[in-house]
Specification:
The chain is of the alpha+beta class and 496 residues long. Helix content is 34%, strand content 26%. The chain folds into 2 domains: 143 residues, OB fold (Dihydrolipoamide Acetyltransferase, E2P), CATH 2.40.50; 261 residues, 2-Layer Sandwich (BirA Bifunctional Protein, domain 2), CATH 3.30.930. A hairpin with a 2-residue loop joins β16 and β17.
Length: 496
Amino acid sequence: MPDRGEDLVQVRLRKREELQARGVNPYPARFNRTHTNQQAVALFQEVESAGGGQVAEPARPRVGVAGRIIAIRGMGKAAFLKLVDGSGGVQAHLRKDLLGDAYDLLRFFDLGDFLGVEGDLFRTKSGEVTVQARQVTLLCKALRAPPEKWHGLKDVEVRLRQRELDLMASEETRNRFHLRGRVIRSIRAFLDTRGFLEVDTPVLVPVPAGAMARPFHTHHNALDRDLFLRIATELYLKRCIIGGLDKVYEIGRVFRNEGIDFKHNPEFTTLESYEAYADYNDVMAMVEQMVAGAATEANGSMRVTFGDQVLDFTPPWPRLSLRQAILDRTGIDADLVRDAPALAERMKELGVDIGERASYGLLVDKLVSDKVEPALLQPTFLVDYPKEMSPLAKEKEGDPRSVERFEAFAGGMEIANAFTELNDPVEQRKRFLEQEEMRKLYGEEDFDRLDEAFLFAVEHGMPPTGGLGVGVDRLVMLFSGQHSIREVVLFPQLRT
């Protein structure tokens, strides 16, 4: 049986050929668009308001608008078309007596085609601001029909694999990615006004360090060397601090060759910032203000609806000891149960799946992710982590087993991670070597990696520094009410 979609493509191809036979270029290089659709409507409303609600025909503004055809109504000697561009929609009125022979081209137009219309703005009897077409220009002949307007794309896989169709069909999807842009602009503006310098660090790195994650591996032919996609931007940004750039940040993609679920995509967007002469308390205060500002920029309020919860990002946020949070949720004092096998037994009693063998750091992380994190709905800081979990963080004064680290949570998921950065080169080397030993003991786990270039830099002296990492995608999830990271990444990775 013939594929109806392909049959329709053939019909459109024949229209394309006939247009070309008539001397019409279906894909011209330019069109003089004077206004976006939204600007055109606003212009008419402004003129109308100045005229006391009336616009005489000689005073009608002349505009050139363009967009995708999403509706065609009527034919005969007149027709209405709805055009949509990135700003929104506008109606165009085509009349044979005004367009002459050009009106006959209407029968070659289809939904999904791009059209340029030049003409005068007026308001129809039904009250809609409309362009009275004086000239029309076909800007692109689409060979495939757009998704059905009213129902959009129901198949989630199609929406995500062919995001252009999702954007085409769904105003909600388009608005979500506009929101994402506002969030990132807000973060940039916040940091810029505080004197931070935005920098770029390598994506291809010789040592995939700065986080406990499995990297993607590649090979550079000209250099004949193995490289990795970065798993974090941390170590290069701290080298900037060492070099004398006291406040730096980077917003960019990092890559981790790990599982995919509703919170994880193999490539994701992070903000990392580093500030000399600051500690994790300073960073906590900064995070509260920055995220609250981003929420306001995204939604006009620090209160955000996420599922059936209203999350309030108004500072200050609660600060909870990690040790106490685990104790409250599980009855386990992770500071007293320091032996990994003993902790594993306690966790098994709680029904926490830990596999056959795991390090103490991984076990604590599993307790947090399974028992504590889901309960942290309102914005909350967990503070003071075991040293085993944080090889790049400075030891907490008076508590040699803990480090000055916090993670921020909201909506039941982690959104930020920060340290008072370790700047003792001898201790840092010791921690890296311990990580390498742990990798040998627990081959299935991810540990940080020894980076000699970074250690060489730290040996030249790094001032006290507060460092921060923020999951930008997760912030967008919260602010847009989405429970899957795939909905806030334009083109997520999907299983085949």
